[in-house]
Amino acid sequence: MNKAFSAKVDKRESVVGIIGLGYVGLPLIIEFAKKGFPVLGFDVDQTKIDALQAGTSYIRHIEAKHIQDAFIDGSGGKKADATVDFSRIAECDAILICVPTPLTEHRDPDLSYIEATGRSIGPHIQKGQLIVLESTTYPGTSEDVLIPILQNESGLHAGADFMVAYSPEREDPNNKEFSTSTIPKVVGGYTLDSLDAARSLYDCVISETVPVSSCRAAEATKLMENIFRSVNIALVNELKTVFTEMDIDVWEVIRAASTKPFGFMPFYPGPGLGGHCIPIDPFYLTWKAREYGATTRFIELAGEINTGMPKYVIQRTMLALNDQGKAIRGSKIVLIGLAYKKNVDDDRESPTYALWKELSELGAEVSYFDPYCPEIRPSREHSHLTGIRGLHESDFADGTYDAAIISTAHDGVDHDALAKHFGLLVDTRGVCAPAENIVNA
What CATH number belongs to 2-213? Predict the structure, then answer.
């Protein structure tokens, strides 16, 4: 099975299907198309399909030119196609699943997207196909959740009739140093044939593949990477609160510590965690660990610290407003930055939303400013905010607003200039020069 699969891969004849055309799936389509593979993208959102077929991009840091190169060539033909018709899975040799894995309201893993995908593609699976899950999840998901669904829906057997692997995505949107093709890719297979097939495919588009012994080991690798970051960010967030009480600038301390050429790696504080991985992944492991009677006290403590940072920022804001003789109730407050990180338009799990919720519950009138996110897009978590448009810099000139909080600091924004329009600016990112109206938090 693997030899026939690899032979088609070597000739660039394998049709690569990619399910989920967001921040992970779309870059993969572009890379496979660049290498000459016929690519078929799948998504339940028809607006994404329409945009791709028209050669336009709906993700800010992915240029329309790359979409056009993949989906439209000079003769009017296509190197890639996209569809909402999941029956076309039958046309594919390899199927890469890049769907969301959020948390439930009780902070338990939500595998509904993976499960729905399995049910959608299962009836159309063909013998000899390779199916790779890329979504971040807990160890055992591929074998205990996805494979049983695929087998039940298809009547085929994993390992014997079709191959299964797990290869965690490592996307870092708008990273200028690393891209999809240059970030090494961890791969674990359900069987040795599955591993070899997945490596042969990814080796064509990724600079290096890193094989591990199983899908479970690959799933654990992704969690370890992001839990490492979560724990270290929690540490520096806690140090920020301590140093602030001591009237010490944590940013100055980090810069100084970073001059040590060994034994130190800089992490940076903020108003909380954001993005599709770091705020979520630790909870996937702590949830799974309970099944084995294991405790994850260190990880859970880090989660408590990080999720508590928005309240800390609000407390600092309340005290600063109080010093000016103002109550937070009725104050007009601008949140600067909606995206979860600088220089992207990705607002998934952004700590700005946590700040917004806290401020609103305290009676503040909340607005936001973010040139990368001019309008709040639909989401399950913040549906009541859908369609709200951000402010423009010109809106600040008349002194209408009582305070601003820098939640995300885009490089293209002059934060020192913005600060002059507010009686109080709370800087959670350490980007403003010291001034009387600036409070670090």
Answer: 3.40.50.720
